[in-house]
Amino acid sequence: QVQLVESGGSVVQGGGSLRLSCAASGRSFSTMWVAWFRQAPGKEREFVGDIGSSGTTYYTNSVKGRFTISRDNAKNTVYLQMNSLKPEDTAVYYCAARPFMGADYANWGQGTQVTVSS
Known about the structure:
Largest sheet: 7 strands, mixed
Structural class: mainly beta
Number of helices: 0
Low-confidence stretches: none
Mean pLDDT: 95
Helix content: under 10%
Number of strands: 11
């Protein structure tokens, strides 16, 4: 079992940047796929992007070119760098982990709020 804790959420003006962190404890984190999801008020949870153990990344189209996921396995942490933020990026952001590509995301953090003002 792995425990995940997100941090870094804040209020930021449109066009600004934020970096979210997802710190893990527990079983081997470096071999796991880690994803970022977000959920805006009144909307379903949305996949943002993920990163594999080797650093391979995938992003949903709406954040490509603006968001970057990276990982520091020595610190058991995955980051979500968000640039050129838009009001529609406002949401609670969650990180989640799974043991390999194709498995269910069974481990989730509690979420961190990101609010982008216009």
